[in-house]
Design a protein that fits this description.
heterodimer; A: 331 residues; mainly alpha; Cytochrome C3; two-stranded antiparallel ribbon; two-stranded antiparallel sheet; 4 strands; B: 363 residues; alpha+beta; Alpha-Beta Plaits; 2 domains; 10 helices; 13% strand
Amino acid sequence: MRNGKALLKQTAMAAACTFCLIIWGAGPGQASELEATDSGAPSAKVMFPVSAKATAPVASMKPVLFNHLIHEKAVEKCETCHHTGDPAACSDCHSAEGKEEGKFITLEKAMHAKNIAVREDGKTPSSCVSCHEQQTAKRECAGCHSTISPSYDAAWCSTCHNVNVTPQQMADGANGRLSEAANLAVATKTVQETKRAASPATLGPAKAIIDAIANEYEPCVFNHKRHMASLMENIKDSKLAAAFHTQPETLCATCHHHSPLSLTPPKCVSCHPVAIDRMQPARPQLKAAYHLQCMGCHKGMDVKRPVNTSCTSCHKAKAPAAEAPAEAAEK
Amino acid sequence: MNRRKFLTFMGTAGVVSALGTAKVAKAGVETFPYYDNGYGVLHDMTRCIGCRKCEEGCNKANKLPAPEKPFSDLSVLDKRRRTTPTAWTVVNKWDMGEGKFAFRKQQCFHCNDPACASACFTKCYQKQPNGAVIYDGSQCVGCRYCMVACPFYVPSFEYGEPFDPVIKKCTFCFDRLKEGKLPGCVESCTMDALTFGRRKDLIKIARKRIEAEPEKYLDYVYGEHDAGGTAWMVLMPKPKDLPQCSTGNAAEAKDAAKRAGLDTTLGNQPMAEYTYGALGAVPMIIAFWPVLFGGAYGMTKRREAIAKANLAKATAEEKQKVMDAVVKVIEKEQGAEAAEKARQQMNEALAEADAPKTDGEAN
């Protein structure tokens, strides 16, 4: 066999390459698949509840993935997060129990604190939650986010606390023994496996006729589709919105609030009575529910027109035939 | 009754009445009964858009005459308005600073312990168990003391009415409440800026709203304690340029509330209590002063009468003495017969001299 050697060599090389690739793919080498950061920091990092205690928390909330790359692009300077000016890891100073270096501010506080007191030297730190909540004050977000506030429940926590790790990795991470390479490997896997929520399957009816209590005015013709399309257009480039609007129906939940996420939510009148409910005097009546919802969002998004008191912009005045006798009576 | 007995009696009466007054003062807010289950309305200024639908609702519910300008004309909001006999509620626009405006509906606050009722001496005003302060003009004399007494400038007098003008003010739609309906303004509110409910529930609702959005609201429920507490209460937006006040701190909320036209310096005491001590003494004065001064007058009169009687007695004795002396001299010189005759004649002359005097007195 004249070419036997070469074939054997090629086969051996292919086998070696496959083997190497398998080893490489399984190991930390895959990190190179994430885009590198400008600062040289790891592109993504799993943040463990680092503890100084000998008995590291084996069972704990899932750790959080921090995508350094996306955040680096979103903020102006490193000091936004690395508030001391030293690009150290958060857990260097803020451990689960608090350390002297971090003024005994625990990791939990450092990540979740809201209403952070302004520091005199101008180096006011911000936590994940405080910064993200500030972002929702932007005009395109404020419509929904000024009228609703998140219910701080399990679903809210698991939006960030979602990294799957083995108990061994958890223990190593909490002790600070997990190597950077291994951390990056888990982080990369999580980034690659995280899927973005799809858009809602439907934008709802093009025209929703709101006529349940039409009395003084004609029924209101509400362009549901246009409102949805406009909201989605506003946030289509927002990575923050993409990360936190975890369900296709999340966007529906501002108006169709307090009920489980669904593409077929219950009608407003299901909960908002036409006349005051004696047992629930604080619950807005149907008329007010509509007005509060529409005007609240328009105010948050700084929609200039129609002004709140322009009644006939949304529901036309009743046909003059019906109005004439009333006017005559007045005169 | 002698002087000593009288003074003892008056002294006891004085102590007893003083004790009685002290008891009333100690009783505190009991000047009018407080109805725990009364209704109220919570006005949330942050929801109000100034559409004037409440004014229209009030007008219709109470069958008031149509206003000069229609309710759809919002230009009236540019001017500060007061309630009038034909507009029992008005919405005003208030500058909350930094170009932010808020609207506040003005009407009777239906105080727990109303100043108007305490000022009215014909009992036209009554606090009802359902929370309403209602006015019945049948006894009204038109003194307008209630207008002076009201810290919110609410009662309005029918100055345009030439015959029998009375006070007009918000009735909390008393008759509608009895029928189980909402007040006209609450029913027509498009934003539920007016929430109807039991007063004690409304305070909880207000607290919850402040807690949910601490940046939006001033941490002060106007009317919870102001002027002794009112059935209608107001939640105000927190002006952006002013610091948040500590919960329910009237002194700290003063500047912010002033921008919404609300006065937090009225104090927590019902207006009526400021005058109750002084006015409570009036019945005592009416009851005891006639006895006191009547007694003093009586004593003086009696003393005068005794002095007069003594004087008359002394005069008579003196006269008798003189007469006896004269008669004795006559007896000695002219005999007993002449003496008897002289005595008779002198007695007659004296009686004659006294007679015109008694006639004069009789006249």
